[in-house]
């Protein structure tokens, strides 16, 4: 067992940290205020390979591993959760196309995601009445000659405004329940794909979250990803990787909270001394660092397992990805709470970054599967083993 990052991982980590500090941190608040990530930032990230880290070079990606992906998301999330979630979801969509798409689909879409020509990818699963119970989606895609005609709606779609390509879960056979679900790739601008209302959110406001409406949206049958009826498993399998990204995002936010707690507690003087001298504050910092280090290990273990799975080993990482997401996102909420507490009244006003971190982290125990769904996945995997 080796707990050291490789030289390659350390170089990548430093490169992303420098980039995040130089290019993202100075505009992180502006991104939230304007509720928009500048296109040129996404293009700069694409130039560095950050939008499609795990996609092989032959399809335009840098061909790095999932450990690299997790490290990069951590560094970006340390300065902006909004940018980190967009990057993580785009990589998840690219991986979905890479793992389940045919050669033509890979060649057509992956270079566009990798180069930044497509600013993002979107993963369209959730519907108004189908959140945790994703298998109960109702959006239909009916075959008509060489096309599918899609009708229905999706909500809470991350990257929906910026995405060039959408991975859309649809029902192609109503009689077959979850085995009648398929995934269809829909390009931005396809007639009948309407980008609906953009949500106003508690946090991660720079990341766009929109409603999608499909009104007789016609796409060629060649846009079917995998086989008809395999869609539910494709979406869940792809989400296993996405959950590692959200766990990594939570680690990045935790680290940012801890940095702020340390800085503030050394500067803030009460009762004649820096508050860092008080055991109440020290314990909050100690508990936070302990939880961060545990979370990082769980996220990196899940990433390492996924890499072994992708290399063809006969192992699964579903349970480990859910454990990593569950622990990291719950811990990050506790850490953000403490970070505000250490700052006292200053933690509750916008001038101090912990106010944003506290709001930004809240959604991480909800999207890409709530903590309750992660527990369900973990328990099912244990009891089924
Ligand atoms: N990988 C591959 N296949 C899987 C799988 C996985 N991780 N998990 C389950 N399956 C397979 C099962 O083996 C089963 O196959 P068989 O029919 O051949 O036996 C099939 O899928 C159906 O599985 P279940 O019966 O277990 O399905 P379920 O209806 O009980 O649901 C669930 C399982 C875990 C609750 C699932 O619905 C789930 O994960 N829900 C949460 C949805 C979610 O995470 N949404 C997030 C939206 S995307 C998002 O948030 C992105 C963003 O924008 C930030």
Summarize the structure.
The protein has helices at residues 7-24, 28-34, 39-47, 66-79, 81-100, 103-115, 231-267, 279-310, 318-343, 353-362, 371-384, and strands spanning 120-124, 140-144, 147-158, 163-171, 181-187, 193-198, 209-220, 224-225, 269-270, 273-274.
Q: Could you describe the 3D structure shown?
A:
This protein is α+β, with helices and mostly antiparallel strands and 385 residues long. The protein has a four-stranded mixed beta sheet. A hairpin with a 2-residue loop joins strand 9 and strand 10. The chain has helices at 7-24, 28-34, 39-47, 66-79, 81-100, 103-115, 231-267, 279-310, 318-343, 353-362, 371-384, and strands at residues 120-124, 140-144, 147-158, 163-171, 181-187, 193-198, 209-220, 224-225, 269-270, 273-274. 52% of the residues lie in helices and 16% in strands. The protein starts with 6 loop residues before the first helix and ends with a helix. The relative contact order is 0.11. Bound molecules: acetoacetyl-coenzyme A. Acetoacetyl-coenzyme A (CAA) is lined by residues 85, 89, 123, 125-126, 132, 134-135, 158, 178, 232-233, 236-237, 239-240, 318, 367-369, 373, 376-377. Acetoacetyl-coenzyme A is lined by residues 85, 89, 123, 125-126, 132, 134-135, 158, 178, 232-233, 236-237, 239-240, 318, 367-369, 373, 376-377.
